[in-house]
Each structure stands twice: as structure tokens, then as C-alpha cells.
Amino acid sequence: MSIGIVTPQKMHFSQPLPLRSGASLPAYELAYETYGTLNAERSNAVLVCHALNASHHVAGTYEGQPKSEGWWDNLVGPGKPLDTDRFFVIGINNPGSCFGSTGPTHTNPATGQPWGSDFPVVTVEDWVDAQARLLDQLGIERLAAVLGGSLGGMQALAWTLRYPRRLRHCVAVATAPNLSAQNIAFNEVARRAIVTDPEFHGGHYLRHGALPRRGLRVARMIGHITYLSDDSMEAKFGRELRNGQLAYTTQDIEFQIESYLRHQGDKFSEYFDANTYLLITRALDYFDPAREHAGSLARAFAAARDVRFLVVSFTTDWRFSPARSREIVKALVDNQAAVSYAEIDAPHGHDAFLLDDPRYHAVMRLRFQNIAREVGA
Amino acid sequence: MSIGIVTPQKMHFSQPLPLRSGASLPAYELAYETYGTLNAERSNAVLVCHALNASHHVAGTYEGQPKSEGWWDNLVGPGKPLDTDRFFVIGINNPGSCFGSTGPTHTNPATGQPWGSDFPVVTVEDWVDAQARLLDQLGIERLAAVLGGSLGGMQALAWTLRYPRRLRHCVAVATAPNLSAQNIAFNEVARRAIVTDPEFHGGHYLRHGALPRRGLRVARMIGHITYLSDDSMEAKFGRELRNGQLAYTTQDIEFQIESYLRHQGDKFSEYFDANTYLLITRALDYFDPAREHAGSLARAFAAARDVRFLVVSFTTDWRFSPARSREIVKALVDNQAAVSYAEIDAPHGHDAFLLDDPRYHAVMRLRFQNIAREVGA
């Protein structure tokens, strides 16, 4: 059953948010949604952290927009693996995003102009701090769990390092303890496509009445390739021609995969903000809890030893491969932390974390059933 | 020992070249180089086919340019695996390229303007036809071998299907029987980066005094990621910072891998032609010998059953993985063709075919020694 109609909310923060870069974000707003009911003990709250192209809109639909399902609607709802009949689920849009929280398209109070590329650089840790402040306002001292996939998984991990006493469980799906050189490389190409688009205007395109759509399209196409497995792309598109025969053209579409990618790029460039893309890919690049511990992930996770972990990876995910999840598991085991690890044999690559794999959902359901029992949800 | 100073040559063809698209290339020139001496029996000629970013300049250096080694100088030369003391080696620049043979930067005789994007679409088979004509002029009826890596390997394979009586041996390195959906996807993103660069002007940038360098840079950066293995990128760059500490910037370089990729993109955009990039990636996309045989690669290779094959792949090559080479081997075995297959355990990804791996070079040396004995070279 779907959660039905939901309504996003906003919370204003007048206290500036100090950032890891040394800068700070002045007064700001966060968009968020909640599903289910906070119990009297305030023990059943689960925070769901979002990835690059997502938002606080985790589940349900918006009034009058029947196709506006949240990005994890298959996982979160009444009777679903993360059961909103038992849990109070919170989705928060991270600052720097373009879906409601204060970000580069909003007005910089210092100039009266859109922030553009002057928006301060934000990190996973900054987001976690912002999320913690919002939970303070909601009166939630300790979360039953923090859950996230991909970049959201990094936030879930950062929670365990930064606020280990504020969560019981961490569920980190399809994520990594940091980006590999290849991951950074893909991000960098995407950023160069955006930054070198003449419509980018050094990041102040809004002041110029412009939008760097070409760059965003290319960035999204690159990203999309890394979200799918080679095999699933092959199964879905293979070498299928769009028009049944070759036209011998370098600029027009010949293969279905080209048509699909262009469509993904076009769609994305219509709604996503270019500066947000730069900020979020940088947050990915920067995340590296081992760095401050002389490169030792085990030492980094010493802080998190009392949190219980579920780590999930997908066999065909080549963006954040199972080997990267096993690094996390190893660091936790080294700390004798309680960790369960599920490596799901799924064909869909990185995107699998958003899809309906029955084994994956069974693992998630079981974990949240156990958490529910534990917290009396 | 290096082959020393070499001099490129040109050959003019007044007879138009009919192309697979149905169009034809009017009078054209091919740039080529030869190394070693054709023996009296004309039995020791080896054709080396080039890949995307290479040319007829296979080995040796140019007068007064000591750093101008050919792209396969480590493999081809006196005493090298392909020994120019025994073989007469020929490198031919393919039409559509930007290194001397007739291509999009040359003048279209019909307009008196640069061809630009009006240059006809060329395929691997068209290149092989052009190469065969040049060999006719050199008086070489039958080649001891055709050798190529990557896209060059596709040409070597196409030789065995198109002119099976004109070669004894085919050596196909780090190649594939066609591009996967993922391969096409990467090509398509690169093409979109070029075509949507405002300086592209529909492919007639030269007439506008412009060059789509931004698009070429991004295209090259994407390509480069696919040439290296994840592991070798990790070993070479990891998460190393360029300046030892983070600057928190979305547009400037933070990581060494970014610096490296930007440098590769910049260099490439200074010398490579954008229309050539489109043409060559399309030739890659189109190559698919099985297509005309109801999807059966085995049936396609029935024509080549009397050619002897060496197929070489590299374990960490994720662009053209060993599995793709095994498809070729399987099709040849199905035809009871003579095929040897070497899967080299090398860390360098696709680029390994250009590098000095001792096991790889030993396999190549042995094969060419055997060929030399066979042809009396």
C-alpha cells in the first residue's frame, strides 16, 4: 500500500551552519517530509538520507500529482519493508540541493542575487549536522535508524561517526567508504562538461538569464552509464537500432541506447540545477572518514562501535562495488561492532538499490522488523 | 633498437572509394609509412591497423623530432617482437582521420570548402577496402599478417572476412566482435559533448574559424577513463590531492586524477579533429560482422576459416573485456579455424595493448617468429 498524499514542510534556521570548509551557511531553510507517527517514547524515528538526484520526497505522492511517487516509495510505506505503520520516517532535503532547501538558486542575503557558484561548498558531514539540527527541532534525540543508499549511505555512515549516540542502527546500502580515483574521474568529467558550457557564466547563469543545459545533459548521460550494469544495459538495449536499419549518420540517433541516454539527459537538464550538481559531486569526492585517521577506516569507525550496522551491496554495482562495502564491513569487524552484511546477486548495477529486488527487500524488511521490536515500535 | 628516422609517404587514388553507406569518397589520398624491406617473394609484408587516436606512424621517429616515436614503437622495429629486420611493415592512415589521409579538414572538391561534417561516414570495412587498394599499388598480393589492437583489431578481423585469401595470419589484440551497449553509450556521450559545443557549428567549424575544443576535451576525458583499469587508476592516482590539502572548490582541481584528466583533454583538443572523432566512434559503433549473418558470429567467420588467428586480451580491460575476445575465439573454433588465444594478466586495462608487458610481448614475438619461418622472412 502506498503512503498516499504527503505534504512537504519547511523549517527555518536563523543560526548559521558552520561548514567543514571553514565557511558557514547563514540563515537557511530545510525542506522535509515525514511519514507515519512519532510514538510517545519518540523511539521510532528513522531518518532516510537522499542521494545525488533525490530529495526529501522519499515516499507518497503530492496532491493532484498521481505520478509524483517519492524516490523510495517501493521501500517506505504502510506494510513496506520500512513500515510507516510502525516507524516515523523523516526525509530531509540537504542544503545546496535544488529541491526546496536553501541552495544555489536561492538568494544570497549578502548580494540580493542568486547564490550561484558563491554558494558555500558543503560536505556529507555538513549535511549530517544540518539534519541533526532539524531533528533537534522535532524533539528527536535518538533515531531508531539512519538509512541511505549511495551518497545517502555515506550520510548514514557519517551519522555513526559524528553522532554515534543519536542512532541505534545504521543501514548503508550500495555505498563506499570514499570515492575511488575512477569515481572521482567520472565526477570530474561531468563537472567539466557543466563548467565549460558557455551558458555556465562562471556559475552565475541565473543572473545572465541563462542555463547550462548542454553541460547538464552530458553530465547526466555520463552519470547514467555508471548507474547501470554493463549486463543490464546489454539486456535492455543491446545493439538494437532505433529505426531498424542504419542511416549512417554521426549526429543523429542510430541505436536505442543513444535515444535512451539523450532522453535521460534532456529530462534531467530541465529540472536539475548545475551548481547543485557541482556541489553534490564534490560532497561525494570529499567524503573520506579514514583521511582524518591516518588513512585507517578501522580507526575512524572506533567512534561508531555501539551502533548496529546493516551493510548491503549489489554484485553488478560497478560504481560502488561490493568490494567497497566489504571495506566498511572489515573496518567495523575490526572494531567488534555489530554488523550484518548482505551482498545481493542482482543484475541492475548501482540502480539496484532503488529497485524491487525481493531478496534485497526481504533483508531490509527483516532488519526493520527487528529494529521495531527493539524500540517498541 | 629503434627503427630510427622514418618518412611518411602519400599515395593518391583517383578512383572513388565506394562506401558501405552507399556514398563514395571521390579522389583521395592516403598517408602511409613502411618499415623494413619487402623481400623478393613479396611474402613478408605485415599491415598494422591503427585505433582511434593513432595513425600510419606506427614506429620510428621523424627527422628532427626525437620525441615523435610511433604509437607502437615498442613492438615494431629491428629485433622487436614484430621484427623489421625480417618483415616489411606497413602503417596506413585511414580516410576520415586527421593525420594526413583525406579527412574532414580537407577540401571537399564539390564545394571548395573543408568537408567538415559533410565528409562521408566511413566504416571499418571501408577502411579495409582502402588499405587493400594501397597494397595493390605496392604490389602486395598477400600479406603475411594483419595486426591491430582495439579498433585496429576490428580492422584485422574485417580483413579476414573481406579478403581472406589476401592474408595468412590475423593478430587481433584487445578487441571485440562489436561494441556493447555500454561501449556505444560512452561513444554517444562523447559525441554529444562535441556536437552540442556551440563552436561545433553543425560540423562546419572551420568555415566559421572556430574549433569545438570544449567538446573534444570532455570527449577525450570520457574516453580516457575507459582506457585505464579501475585498479591502475587507483594505483597511479588514488585520492591523492594536488596541493596536499583540500581547498573546498567545485571548479578548481583538488585531486591529482582531475589534473591528469584535464591535461589529457587539453592536449587532445589541440591536435585532434572533432569530425574525425565523430566518424571514428561511429565506425566503432557500426562494426558488427555478425549482423549480416543473422547475428551469428560463427557464420560470419566461415569465410575466414583458412586464416590463422592469434587473439590477445587483457584481464583488466573493461572496455573490450576478455569475454569479448572469447566470443571471437568461440566463433573461430566453431569453424575449426586455427586460433591461439592469450589472455594476459595485466593491470593496465585497455591501454595494456600499447604497453611493454613482457608476457604479452613474448606471445607476440613467438607468433611473428613462426610467421617469419613460414613465409621465409
Shape of chain A: globular
Unreliable stretches of chain A (pLDDT < 50, length at least 5) are: none
Helices and strands of chain A, in order, run as EEEEEEEEEEHEHEHHHHHHEHEH
**Would you count the extended β strands of chain A for me?**
14
Mean pLDDT of chain A: 97
The number of helical runs of chain A is 10
Helix content of chain A: 25-40%
Explain the overall architecture.
2 copies of one chain form a homodimer. The first copy, chain A, is an alpha/beta fold. The first copy, chain A, is 34% helix and 17% strand. The first copy, chain A, contains 10 helices and 14 strands. Chain A has an 8-stranded mixed sheet with strand order 1-4-8-5-11-12-13-14, with helices on both faces. In chain A, helix 3 packs antiparallel against helix 7. The longest helix of chain A has 18 residues, at 358-375. The interface between A and B is large, with 59 and 59 residues.
Q: What labels describe this entry?
A:
377 residues, alpha/beta, two-stranded antiparallel ribbon
Question: What is the secondary structure topology, with strand pairs?
Answer:
Two copies of one chain form a homodimer.
Chain A: E1 9-13, E2 17-18, E3 24-25, E4 28-35, E5 45-49, E6 76-77, E7 82-83, E8 88-92, E9 107-108, E10 113-114, H1 124-138, E11 143-149, H2 151-162, E12 167-173, H3 181-195, H4 213-227, H5 230-236, H6 256-271, H7 274-286, H8 297-300, E13 308-314, H9 322-334, E14 338-344, H10 358-375
Helix pairs in contact in A: 1-2, 3-4, 3-7, 4-6
